[in-house]
Amino acid sequence: MKLVLLGTTGYHPNERRHTLCLMLPELGIVLDAGTAMFRVRDRLVTPELDIFLSHAHLDHVAGLTYLHGVLANQEVRRVTVHASDEKIAAVQRHLFAEAIFPVAPRCDFQPLTGPVTLPKAGTLTYFPLKHPGGSLGFRLDWPDRSMAYVTDTTASPTAPYVKHLEGVDLLIHECYFPDRRADWAAKTGHSHTTPVAQVARACHAGRLILVHMDPMFEEDGQINIETARAIFPNTQFGEDLMEVEF
Questions:
Q1: How far are the Cα atoms of 47, 128, 155, 246 from residue 171, in angstroms, in the given order?
Q2: Domains by residue range for the chain, with CATH
Q3: What angle do CA 228, 229, 233 make, to 5 degrees?
Q4: At a CB cut-off of 8 Å and minimum separation 6, what does 217 contact?
Q5: What is the pLDDT of residues 127-180, one digit of tens each?
Q6: 3-state class of 13 per DSSP?
Q7: Is 8 exposed, middle or buried (0-12, 13-18, 19+ CB in 10 A)?
């Protein structure tokens, strides 16, 4: 199965990366709708599109306003945005407020109320993350493979969410700050390098890909990936348009 990292940074785009948006093209599944959402258009191969939002901060939902362009001249019969009730209300009330975005795109909103059935006998489950305003992590399981997506939280190998990641084949996890800015990670509800790698080790993940890095810096230079690899060797940076087979 192929996962495409359409956008991999946090807060705002820079010359190298757009904000978070991950896609499983063959299943019509998108995780978060950051500024890379426009890239979904060229990868739509299914008649239905399901978008799962971790939360409603702008760098994760701004791309919903791009849906007019994404869907133009496409044979897509259904678009569903899945999120918690609170986040759906925030998007509808604020992002799609008439004064901000007067013509809402063609999509339905579906509150997350339990596990979601996915194509190819898959299941999506979700779990709460500690972050200002609240966030969700996602785990996607199929009979022969699994992946998890964790963003906008403060990583810790003892955090409650780690139990939901046990044995996952592919872990996509935010890593906004380097270890030297651990204090800022705690203040802002984000993660830094060492605990993220410790999470991957603690849950026995198969592979770790770091995303949602601080866009103000050259991520590869500020976040010492060798620090992470010393704890969890199978670690790499996520790059925009990277295709990941798992």
A1: 27, 16, 13, 10
A2: 2-245 (3.60.15.10)
A3: 135
A4: none
A5: 999 999 999 999 999 999 999 999 999 999 999 999 999 999 999 999 999 999
A6: coil
A7: buried
